[in-house]
Design brief:
The protein is of the alpha/beta class. Helix content is 37%, strand content 23%. It contains 11 helices and 10 strands. The strands form 2 sheets. The chain has a 6-stranded mixed beta sheet with strand order 6-7-8-3-9-10, with helices on both faces. Helix 6 links the parallel strand 7 and strand 8.
């Protein structure tokens, strides 16, 4: 199922944050949306998932117009939203957190158990912690749980807000590799909002750069990395492309040229 966002306007009261944003996510593909803090990325996801009412524009899931639907109806239509800062239920067990993610399909207990086994297979770290309170997990494990909870309802489209936030590089690589696997294994359309440009562009099929509530540019990630505006604003003035061959020969040089944390432009 595709996600089509066309000429979207949204905000909070009289404050308009999004100004005619258009983004498309095709089935079995990852679209990355990058930009500095305040660019409107989180507002975009909130509008798409029905947590915020759009003032103009359209949002379509497949052939269905969901622009005016509430969050519960949009979730039932096949979209799962993994919010920023994980937001797991800390006093509930890992297993209970996963079960809540399948609330729209809760009546089929056999299917629910089968789906939980699949989700745990994607995130093996959770397998030994199903009876453990979610609040006792590490930050990386909580992020895996948040993504797994979103997958429990078998969505057609998964949207994620800053899944790399505050995590170690090793954990970021693991989570992003799982997102790439979900794209191929389940044919998911994934909309990934990130400030970590390098990590997002590594797995994305298409990318959008947002600035002050608008899409500044879009295209293939490799082409955007070569754009001087992206290099100066999001990769720092000293950014240098390093080929895969060079990175394999001298990993320390690659690390120096491609920092794990990529700051947005100064305001």
């Amino acid at each position: 199922m595709s996600l089509q966002i066309r000429d979207l306007y949204a905000g909070y009261g009289r404050l308009e944050v999004l100004h005619g944003v258009s983004v498309a996510v095709e089935p079995g593909s990852i679209a990355a949306v990058v930009g500095a803090n305040g660019a409107g990325k989180t507002t975009l996801l909130r509008a798409v998932s029905g947590l915020l009412r759009a003032s103009a524009g359209t949002i379509r899931l497949g052939d269905r117009d969901v622009t005016r639907l509430g969050a519960e109806s949009i979730a039932a239509a096949g979209l799962a939203h993994v919010p920023e800062n994980r937001l797991v239920f800390p006093s509930l067990t890992v297993a209970d957190n996963l079960t809540l993610g399948a609330w729209t399909r809760r009546r089929d207990r056999t299917a629910l158990a089968q789906r939980r086994a699949q989700v745990v297979e994607y995130f093996p770290h959770l397998a030994e912690r199903l009876g453990q309170p979610a609040g006792t997990l590490s930050g990386g494990e909580q992020q895996m749980l948040a993504v797994g909870r979103g997958l429990m309802a078998r969505p057609s489209v998964l949207i994620l807000d800053e899944p790399s936030l505050g995590l170690a590089p090793r954990v970021i690589r693991e989570i992003f590799a799982t997102l790439a696997r979900l794209r191929s294994d389940e044919g998911l359309g994934i909309l990934l909002v990130e400030q970590n440009v390098r990590a997002a562009f590594k797995i994305a099929d298409h990318a959008y750069v947002m600035d002050r509530g608008s899409v500044l540019m879009e295209g293939e990630p490799t082409a955007l990395l070569d754009d001087e505006r992206v290099q100066q604003a999001y990769l720092g003035g000293g950014y240098v492309r390093v080929s895969d061959e060079s990175a394999n020969e001298r990993p320390e040089a690659a690390d120096a040229a491609k920092p794990e944390s990529l700051p947005g432009p100064a305001r």
